[in-house]
Amino acid sequence: MSESSTSSRESGQSRTCFCGLTSNQFTATTPMNGGCRLFKCPRPEDIACRYWEWRDEELSAHVSMFIHTQKISLNVIRKERNNLKKTLDEFLGSNASDLKKVTCLEKKVSNLDSNLKRWKNFCCCHGHFLFVL
Ligand SMILES: [Zn+2]
Q1: Which domain of life does the protein's organism represent (predicted)?
Q2: Distance, CA 29 to ligand 1 centroid (Å)?
Q3: Structural contact between residues 23 and 14, judged by C-beta atoms closer than 8 angstroms
Q4: Which of 4, 19, 34, 103 can bridge 67 by disulfide, Cβ–Cβ 3.0-4.6 Å?
Q5: What does the pLDDT read at residue 102?
């Protein structure tokens, strides 16, 4: 059974499981019982007792199926969002690399400009124009 958990304290109701603990409230997302809330032992599955109890009346089949398909759509949207985030991160990462390259090239151009100015000054000071720039 696929479920999501919420604290039973949030709902203002509580139940006690066979362990004597306050149970957690879950919402079923299966096609048959989608949207129905249930109480269940708060311990992890491997050490939980067998206690569980429906909190809600049974929903009609089309409502449960609607909730189930909405859950599937939500998962598809989440997956697409995560893929877009990954693509964006890769894009931004590659742009950062390109920015470093541009900065490096600008520095090289600036150094070449400085060297060119020194050569021009050298040539002007010594009266030797060997070439036209
Ligand atoms: Zn228990």
Answers
A1: Eukaryota
A2: 22
A3: yes
A4: 34
A5: 80
What is the domain partition of the chain in residue ranges? 14-57, 60-126
Q: What is the pTM of this model?
A: 0.45
Instruction: Tell me, in angstroms, the distance from the centre of ligand 1 to residue 47's CA.
Output: 8
pLDDT tens for 54-107 read 998 877 888 888 888 888 899 999 999 999 999 988 888 877 777 788 888 888
- Provide the residue type at 98 as one letter: D
Tell me if 53 sits within 8 A of 72, measured CB to CB.
no
Q: Would you mind telling me the total number of residues written for the chain in this entry?
A: 133
Q: Across the strands, what pairs with 16? A: 22
> Could you report the per-residue pLDDT of 111-131, keeping only the tens digit for each?
888 777 777 676 566 554 444
Tokens of 96: 């950062």
Ramachandran angles phi, psi of 52, nearest 5°: -160, 155
The full DSSP string for 26-83 is: EEE-STTTTT-EEEE-SS-TTT--S-EEE-SPPPPHHHHHHHHHHHHHHHHHHHHHHH
DSSP structure class, residue 23: P
